[in-house]
Amino acid sequence: MPVRRARTALAAVAVVLLGSVVAGCGDAGELKGAGATPTAISPDRLWPDLTPASRPAFDIGEVETEVVRGVTVPGGDIRAVDPVSVVRREIARNPGDYGAGAFAETARRMADCGRSGAKAAGCPVLKAYYRDLTGDGHADMTLGFRQLPGNLTAVRVYTVRKNRLVQIMGYEDAVSGVELAARSVIIRAPSEVAGYEYRLQWTWDQQQQAMLLTHDEMLRTGDRKHTPRSSASAPTPGT
To answer: What's this model's pTM, rounded to 2 decimal places?
Structure first.
C-alpha cells in the first residue's frame, strides 16, 4: 500500500475511534479535536554517492587541553591560584602574539595588575569565576582577559589534576557576554548581520576530559545597529 494511502487509512481509523470515545462522554471533560496535525517530513539526503571524508579539513580545536607549567596549585585548591600569574604564563609561552605581535598592548598593561587606584584599571585580566564544570565536586576556574589593542576577549577554563593546573577550554573573540550554566560555558559574540548574534556553547565531556564545542548558532536579538565581528587575525582598533 502506498505510504500516503496508508497514512490516510490510519487517520480514518483514528477518527472513528475518537468519535466512539467522544460519543460515550457527555460531561464537561469530553475529548475535543485539536485540529489538523502537520505531516512529518523526513530529511532528504543530498549527494548519496559522495565519498565520505575520513578526516577533518581544518583544525578547529575540538579538544584542547594543556598543563600550565610554572603555576602551582597549593593544596589542590584552584581558588589559591593567582589568575594574573596564569595569564602571564600564557603571554610568556606566546611571544609571537604578545611580544611585538598583535597583542603587545596586553603584555604592556600586565604591569598594572596588582596596583591600586586608577592604575589598576589598566590591568587586562578580568575577574575570575569559580564553579564545578567538570562534575568532580571541586571548583574550576573560568578566566578572561582582554587582548589589546582591539576589542577581543580571551576566555579560558582551568581545572586541577594531580595538583597541576590544566587548561580545558580556550576561545577568543569580540565577546558580548559570557554565561555559566550547569556544565557549560556559553559565549555570545556580535554578528556581521544586524539584529543577530553568535551563541557558542562549550560543554564538559567526560570521555575527552575537555570542554567541547557542542553548539554554534546564530540567534536573532532584535533590530540592533550593525556590529562587525572581529577575529584574532584582524583585531578591531579600540580599547
So the answer is: 0.73
